[in-house]
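Batch manifest, entry 17 of 40.
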Amino acid sequence: MKKTVIELFAGVGGFRVGLNDITEFKESGKAIENRDWDFVWANQWEPSTKVQHAYECYTKHFGNECSNEDISKVDASKIPNHTLLCGGFPCQDYSVARSLANEKGIEGKKGVLFWDIARILKEKNTPFFLLENVDRLLKSPSKQRGRDFGIMLRTLHDLGYSLEWRVINAADYGAAQRRRRIFIFGWKSTSKYGKSIHKQDIKKYVYETGLFAKQFPIKKYSNEDENHEVNIIDYVDTVDMTNHFKASFETAGAMICGNVYTSKITPIPETPITMGEIREKRNNLQDYILDDEKADKFGYLRGSKKILRKKPNGAPYYYTEGAMSPYDKLDMPARTMLTSEGSVNRSTHIIPDKETGKLRLITPIEAERLQGFPDNWTNTGMPERRRYFMMGNALVTNVINRLEPQLKSIIENE
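Output type: structure tokens
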């Protein structure tokens, strides 16, 4: 089977950078792709901005196969056939409602992008998919833990898919950032891969033989592990689940032919890349060095505090924060990078400058390195503030790069 791919919510191309092992690009901006995954279509549209910086960055490196329109308005039948759908989609409320005709079919809450994934999978009968999301997806919404993920699982099961998931902290497996994200790999239950998996013990698949177990080793199963099965198929439909479902999903698991097993697993950690290793060696970075005013602001933001505030009903309460280190340690991997990186914010990374020893912000190039992108990947004419935003919004491409060999074997074996 050919390795044809579509990338949804493409951003600046993280899945493509990882799958095709992109480490550099030509002077023209064209990426040098070192593997043979054929990206036949992509979609990137940011509804809240007039200038589409992410889309422009994607097309600068990859050409015009990227669509720049609201994915909910894209005619799925016109999307090219493909063997792998990939994308990082927002964590939202997946509650559902019956259609006006009250038939069994359901429609998702308007504006929730997961339903567009499901719509495209159904229309194109896609054999495989690989998705990424924040790990809180497993626990949302807060008032009905596990409901949203349960609805996703049931929806994908109803479409004929089985899948596995894993929460991966990239730094546990050698990357430069302590970024925890959930990755979901799915396959058609009727596929060759599916038929081979369905004969296995589901627990063994999660711990030993699955895609994630092979590429991101974990400690062997212990009777002390928190693990259990979750029921998703005895509910009438996802509407019933919206009203009644509640479950505990752990950091790893699988759904095979509707049977769901989940377990809290322990990674076998590897030596990560440190902040010191990704720090730029060039001089003259004075534009990023903190002046006295910014240094004072960061000192306050990163310090401990106890502030008297009022609730909406007027009741007083104390908001507290513990102290952080005045700067990020160079002998450790970075904390999770957010879209606010580079601004005067408690979450922003501060490091000592190599040349002067003074405290400074990380540069856009260092932000790109934390996510495994080539240097200056986002230097395509967008404002510097947007370069930080793009990286805070991206995934750690090293994770996708590491999944690639086994993913290639699975697809080529179909």
